Amino acid sequence: MRDSLGLHAFNPGPMTGDGNWTWLIPGRVPTLIDAGVGEPRHLDAIESALGGAALAQVLVTHSHSDHASGAAALSARMPHARLLKMPWPDRDVRWSVRWEPIVDGARLDAGDTSVVAVHTPGHAPDHLCFWHEETRSVFCGDLAQKGTTVFIPAGASGDVAAYLASLERILALNPSRLCPAHGPIIDDPASLLRHYIAHRQEREAQILDALHQGDTRAEAVVARLYRGLADVLIPRARDTVTAHLEKLEREGRVHRRDDAWHIMGP
Ligand SMILES: [Zn+2]
Prior knowledge:
alpha/beta; six-stranded mixed sheet; five-stranded mixed sheet; 13 strands; 20% strand; binds zinc ion
């Protein structure tokens, strides 16, 4: 069986770092994981990697623009390719293509075998990972990125509790590698995923401690926990802290009045 191939989307930028990886699974059902942004060099690279075969389908991990916005350009160049993802109707309409829905647990023919869709919300509500059992690989989208943590945007349906459950779900598969949308292949998935879980627990304890110290606003918590953070990164940090506070609110451990957060209880 031929291995999957990372194809760069040619979209470096402030939000995407070096840019995105998309993954081509060659074989009987040539399948691309993620659509990129429609950069012509990406489309050329896909065609050249296909070596004359027709792309059968594009499986999109989630509706953020660096993963989904290339669907229209791909569809124009390769009209027979189906476009599939888990629906996020508010976002999916932006990409003006016809998406076919994927449900959690769906087994989809891909390459010479198949992949299983694993719903992994947290970073985005529609986020899917694709489990390729033969190679024990997970095409993990934005679930994980080597050398950094993943942004959980409270202001865009991010959910820390859902993210933690998603990490556990992928850990339980015991994959031998993760093929992410950003950064290098992760060949020690369990240690990174466990590190992420511990990091979120530590962050949560720090946020509770900041409220105990008298902070009430997400901005104040950010100033305390992220000392020296560059100004441009402060909105993301505030959104992350808010996502943690919303988790604690649902658990009945803090409550919000206007934009002020308080510890529950005496
Ligand atoms: Zn994303």
